[in-house]
Amino acid sequence: MSANGSHAWYFPDGDIPAPGDRPPHGHESLIMLNPGDEDAAVTITVYFEDREPDVLPVQTVGARRVRCLTISDPIDGYQIPLGQYALKLESSAPIICQIGRMDVQQPNLAYYTVMGHPAD
Amino acid sequence: MSANGSHAWYFPDGDIPAPGDRPPHGHESLIMLNPGDEDAAVTITVYFEDREPDVLPVQTVGARRVRCLTISDPIDGYQIPLGQYALKLESSAPIICQIGRMDVQQPNLAYYTVMGHPAD
Amino acid sequence: MSANGSHAWYFPDGDIPAPGDRPPHGHESLIMLNPGDEDAAVTITVYFEDREPDVLPVQTVGARRVRCLTISDPIDGYQIPLGQYALKLESSAPIICQIGRMDVQQPNLAYYTVMGHPAD
Amino acid sequence: MSANGSHAWYFPDGDIPAPGDRPPHGHESLIMLNPGDEDAAVTITVYFEDREPDVLPVQTVGARRVRCLTISDPIDGYQIPLGQYALKLESSAPIICQIGRMDVQQPNLAYYTVMGHPAD
User: Fold this and answer.
1) What number is the ipTM of this complex?
2) Distance between CA atoms of C98 and C91, rounded to whole angstroms?
3) Which of D35, D67, D118 lies nearest to residue A88, judging by beta carbons?
4) Which residue on chain C is closest to D102 by alpha carbon?
5) How far apart are CA C25 and CA C18, in angstroms?
6) What is the tens place of the pLDDT at every residue in B17-41?
7) Structure pTM?
């Protein structure tokens, strides 16, 4: 099984939406696909407008697996704060990444999604 | 007629929406454009979070044709299960691929679309 | 002024929405940006699911101009039919292209947009 | 910290939405991520359908920072006019850029987003 993808991904526009008071709840998700035959160790850097970036504990995406990480929830105890943020992912194996936001601040949900910008 | 496109495409974020009880029904579609002069034989691999991928029966996209495959419906008898999935497409001829989701879980529909991530 | 962009662009998923009976009306638009210093002559090919493609009369995008073409309306007398279609653009000068759909079939509008897939 | 990204970005489809009369207000945002270790000086060119482009005062994105510029508001005294426009960004350091529109002309908001088209 061939392994395509990139070792680095960027998402400029992150902004955690309000969860709302009933399902479906507003959230932001980061989806990582690892089509290759080696597990991927992914380092996620979180950028802000007015301070130095944070680096999250390394996340794993198994070989031949997709992983959906709800990034509006705490990740190994780290909570991305409210307001503008951006992400960089650096992976030990080639992966393909997309972000999705569900916004429910008005009666109907709205979606916002982009494929990441690949580097390397 | 020149033939541009890629032989492999990735879609990290698939999640079949509820159909709802009246039209327009929620669905997910995979759109494949074959601008070249040879038919394309497309192998679709479906990835999951917690088990090995499935491989669908080969699909054909005719020369100089676009094909819209409703991937929330059974495909040659194979039903993608509910929950997170991802797709890889491998094509014998260069194609260009996009995915679209219509979500009707709230009174108004919401759209979610990305161009695939090309490889090769 | 440098001229970046591509000479060919693909949009797999076109589907003209119903206009609805009051503004804002449902429509599909093709937006072409020509950042260079020469006018661009653009040949647009329309692909279908079950017949040979059509080729539209050549469209011009002026040097250092953006052009928004409402592709749900007739273009020099040619009307894209209802149902699935796809587009290829071939340009004499490098351009950058995006498509947008406004869907008003339910009380609220929904948006659907992708940057084109560049070739060349 | 490695610096990936591009020195030039294009956004064909800009169209400032009506703000509406209550929050959340309709707006358009340009999000620029500078993952590198040097500040980025960004020159933004605004293209129109029927006249020569405008060039905005140089904007800065700090090293290891993301910046969200609300481009529907005046930028250093320059107001992008209503109607179709497009953007080119030229940056002294590699950056990654995305645009987002919130449309509230109907009771529910609708989102419209693309990653920019990278050049260079």
Assistant:
1) 0.92
2) 14
3) D35
4) C111
5) 8
6) 889 888 888 899 999 999 999 999 9
7) 0.94
